[in-house]
Amino acid sequence: MQFDQILQYTLSGLSTGAIYALIGIGFSIIYNATGIINFAQGEFVMLGGLLTLSCLELLKLPLWAAIPCAIVVSAAVGILFERLAIRPLRQPTPINLVIITIGGSILIRGLAMLLWGKDTHAIPPFSGDEPIAIGGATILPQHLWILAITLIIIIINKVYFYHTISGKAMRACSYNRRAAGLVGIDVRRMVLFSFIISSAMGAVAGIIVAPLTMTAYDVGVMLGLKGFCAAIIGGMSSGMSTVIGGLLLGVLESLGAGLISSGYKDAIAFIILLLILFIRPQGLFGKADSERV
Amino acid sequence: MKKMSLLLGSVCLSLICATVSFASGTIKIGALFAVTGPASFLGEPEKRTLELLVKEANEKGGINGQKLEAVIYDTGGDATKAVQLATKLIKDDKVSVIIGPSTTGESMAVIPVAEKGKVPLISCAAGIKITDPAKHWVFKTPANDQVAAEKILTYMNSKRQKKIALLTVTDGFGASGREQIKALAKRKGFTVVADEVYSPKDTDMTAQLTKIRGIKPDAIICWGTNPGPAVIAKNVRQLGINIPLYMSHGVASKKFIELAGAASEGVMLPTGKLAIYDAVAKNDPQYKLLKSYDQSYKKAYGTEASTFGGYAYDAFLLATGAIKKGAKTPEQIRNGIEQSRKLVSISGIFNISPKDHNGLDLSAFEMVKIVSGDWALIK
Question: pTM of the predicted model, to two decimals?
Fold first, then answer.
């Protein structure tokens, strides 16, 4: 076993893991604001990629304009989803909400299939595709974009949750919705906000990964599940622990595929998921009664 | 006794129904395609092709004066649904022949239904199990995966590439290809030095490829359908691997070149002649047919015809070939199909015999290399 091989596995794992982390944070934000797991999260990843494609090809926008356009439209879909599917619910028990998000995800996927067809589509890389060598391993410029954008989003996230009024209000909702309501926080508005933020983040993940992995109407399913794993490892926190959870998952998958057997790649993710749920349901880094933001 | 008369009555009734449908002068062709679902890339072009062919045949006055009617059902790629719909085709629609299903799993599930209903089934799936051993009522139009694998290995042999690294997808297509290549490799004196897999929705295969790079094989054979192979081609380029990369006929469409972009350069694969008919010699017996199929498909649907649609085309040719020779009942059509010899079609030239219900050989494929974004024949 050579050093450059291990380095390659780790680098590949980190860049895949960054995507899992972004999707995982999307899960956590909604979970913290509403107490539900939004299984439609993966579909926003798909929407991000496919909407960018449409902006590029139908509207003939340049890439730098197509990306924000796709994010805005995905966030709008997030708003619609919250308004039409989540808010009107009479009995918002967690199980009802979870089933609704699953139904919503099937609907969004079905509509995407009708709109974009069943083919896989490619999106051009942001800045060329000449490999960059790092000590015997190679990565693409797109991998650097992924790592950098993930980092920026985490920083923005941190600033938002700890240094703005609405971020603090959202944290308050996650601690205790009722109390937050009593001190004058509009909880429903915070729920809407959480959907906007996490659908936009899902879209960003979908856009930055699309040049590497291509995109199609059904990419959201697997990526959504992996993002969910990351969130579970991180104990449903919308901070660093989910990021570490995502990176850990990516690296373990990649090392597992390289060193043990590629046949078990997906199994590794789900074994980790089950182990965490059985042994440490509060997440790998959480204390039993941890703060979730 | 009562039961007996009831049975006789129903037999008579069905005979009357049958006579009525023959007397009306239309021949019903049933079809089961995975138009939606994960195998829709097969089912959709198949459905379009069959609709186009039936329309064209009827515009020309039908076959021997009989109009054709296509009854097409969407299985969604689901074997259970395929079985239900096959029963419906036989019992309710009373079709004379069934084209499809699109996938091997569905085909295997539908075979007992067709055998029991005594209706010929012309599968559009490639799995070797469908016609090996040959079953009385079952035919199939795509060449066996084995033939494609053999084409690659024959070519590799000529280049003295003896150490193979396998990278296959963990679905039916990949598993079957993996088995075939391993069996063939053993027989032909190759060694499989790496046997890696990936799942259909994987987005990064650098881990598998890094491992393969460390083993230093003579060639990599990747067996899968889009988008996996396109990701692999990109990963190979990213890692700077300079080992010849072979792909299966599963990616023999322009879509692969479009998805993999510059990374598709130099990839070699076996393909049916449809994808490369421009490069095929003008005096090739298939040339005229390939060209007319591609052009009429483009005219009707605005996209290029694909090898997969060609499978339905060939099934239609086999069925109508038998009907042209006067076959009317399902039994006669079955016999007619079994006697198809030197039938020039999209996938190749069929020579069907009682022992071989596929009838295609190595000549069905050409080895091509992707050079500056297009196919180039390897001589």
Answer: 0.80
